[in-house]
Amino acid sequence: MSRNYLKKATPTATTGAPTADVPSIVRNVIDDIRHDGDAAVRRYSDKFDKWMPESFKLSSEDIERIVASVPQQTLDDIRTVQANVRKFAEAQRASLQDFEVEIQPGVFLGQLNNPVATVGAYVPGGRYPLLASAHMTVVTAKVAGVPHVIGCTPPIRGEIPSATVAALHLAGADEIFILGGVQAVAAMAVGTETIRKVDFLAGPGNAFVAEAKRQLFGEVGIDLFAGPTEVLIVADETADPFMVATDLLSQAEHGPDSPAVLITTSEGVGRKTIELCDSLLTTLSTADIARVSWGQLGEVVLAKDVDEAYAIADEYAFEHVQIFTKTPRDALTKMKNYGALFLGPMTCVSYGDKCIGTNHVLPTRGASRYTGGLWVGKYLRTVTYQEVRNAEVSGKLGQLCGRAARAELFEGHARSGDLRAHDHLGDTYDWIKAEERQPPEA
After folding, report:
1. What does the pLDDT read at residue 16?
2. Which residues does the annotation mark as catalytic?
3. Which domains are seen in the chain, by residue range?
4. What are the pLDDT digits (tens) for 280-313?
5. For the chain, which terminal residue's Cβ has fewer other Cβ atoms within 10 angstroms, N or C?
């Protein structure tokens, strides 16, 4: 679909590009930790974070002391946000029902949703202490029924991030490590002398953390292949350009590689938004970051009508999509490709990021075309079971199995079916010899 741009992205060769060979660096770190365990973790923590305490794991006394240092208002806010996340996660869990169905007389098939045993939750802390990620990863895992959750978060400028530790603790983390980057993710994935191996990794991170999760996927499960934050706003002539500009920049401040896009049916709204973004950047404290992402990756597209705006938005398939139109709930049926929808001017992406209760770990880089974000179900293994209690039906299934398997030249499979047809229907087969079915002597 052709696009009419009022502002088009003009990325440079270095926009958001890492200055190092990320895959190679990550591979070496993982290999070293796999080989040297804690010794390698200590080396890399010292190298990357200048952090090498006697123990990376916080004791219960450490946690109690750190939480006590956090302002009461912050603790109250953490509890409120986590209550919102927990309520929504509980509703998600309740929607996943175990069941058993009798598909024909005596044949029972069932499904169970079993939590993984151990989760590693990574909470970033480089540019910003993203303590909200503790709510999203740990609370959701605990609602899913995960017995053991390890939380890892890096030091920030040589200091323990107290509010993040409080968030991890109040969310229900069973162990908390002040450890960051690839060394944290790799240690949880492969296991060391002091950090137990997990079954599943969750949480956002920088390019190195994302690459580590990519390389470790398969050895452990992961939530998502996450990339830079994205925001897209669909607006008609009723939208407030000041609000549009404010919300675009709210996400542009995540990093210099965070695209922010407006698709509007109103040229006036589009041009005023561009003007206001430039104006608001003069007072935004994070303008050094947001100016780069908006300047090089920001786009404003003019659509002929709202339906075309939704169609263009679906082509972008962005992580966050805000709807500022006369009837915002139309987007629920008009759009398909997004990580999360935010409907109407009283809602914003920042609510989803920080406090409203839905999960902010969401698909980026077009991944919303095939997956959703982190939710209770990511921590559950949907497994099945089957039981046949009717002898005649078992025999008939055996006959069917024999025919189906031989059509695919799987003789061993066919014989498993033959045996049930023989036992329950009296069918005879050359390969079944009576003397071979005698019980062994005591």
Report:
1. 58
2. 319-320
3. 22-226 (3.40.50.1980), 228-360 (3.40.50.1980), 390-437 (no CATH)
4. 999 999 999 999 999 999 999 999 999 999 999 9
5. C
